[in-house]
Amino acid sequence: MIRNVVFDFGGVLFEWRPQAIVESFTSSADERSLLLKDILRHPDWLSLDRGTMLLAESIPKFAARTGISEDRIEDFLTHVVDSLVKIQETEALLYQITDYHYAVYYLTNMNQAFFETLSERNSFMSLFLGGIVSANELMVKPEPEIFHRLSQQYNLVPGDTLFIDDTPVNIEVAQALGFQTILFTQTPSCLESIRKILNFN
């Protein structure tokens, strides 16, 4: 029987659309390409998630690699976190899940600065009993160790826990570790599937 629900953040509770982020920041095709390829989809972004690089350390590196000024890079990073707006349908689902007395947790690949900003801006964060931010653990999904850390820290039995994530490889690893899972899409049918799994009336 499911007792716990674990949410991913980007793409599940918060919008995460890299292409749209760069398009809404600049009209320059060249700048869009640089920001997407050399920042959001560069291995250094994973280093931020892993906590092996701080956001402040990344700014001069991003500037040197792209040829974009450090001030402009700072503006872009602010734009990125501002683009992580809540997905209202998932927020409503989260409240519904807690109304049914499930324990809710999070497991997110994210740098600490972004996480702190999202926590300050979104009151629903208080619903979570806890969770794991990758940058604090020096590990990221889909590494099995981060799932073990979550289970150990909060005494979660994987078979009693539903893991919701929008990335197939994360779902595959969670399944292999015994979690119940659902691959999230921003569709009414996905939300309905979650409600059915949790036996909502």
Your description of this structure?
The chain is of the alpha/beta class and 201 residues long. It contains eleven helices and five strands. It has helices at 18-25, 29-40, 43-50, 55-66, 70-82, 88-99, 112-121, 134-137, 144-154, 168-176, 188-197; strands spanning 4-7, 103-108, 130-133, 161-165, 180-183. Helix 7 links the parallel strand 2 (103-108) and strand 3. Helix 1 crosses helix 2 and helix 4 packs across helix 5. The longest helix has 13 residues, at 70-82. The two termini are 16 Å apart.
State the main characteristics:
single chain, 201 residues, alpha/beta, 5-stranded parallel β-sheet, 5 strands, 54% helix, globular
Secondary structure layout:
Layout: E1 4-7, H1 18-25, H2 29-40, H3 43-50, H4 55-66, H5 70-82, H6 88-99, E2 103-108, H7 112-121, E3 130-133, H8 134-137, H9 144-154, E4 161-165, H10 168-176, E5 180-183, H11 188-197
Parallel strand pairs: 1-2, 1-4, 2-3, 4-5
Helix pairs in contact: 1-2, 4-5
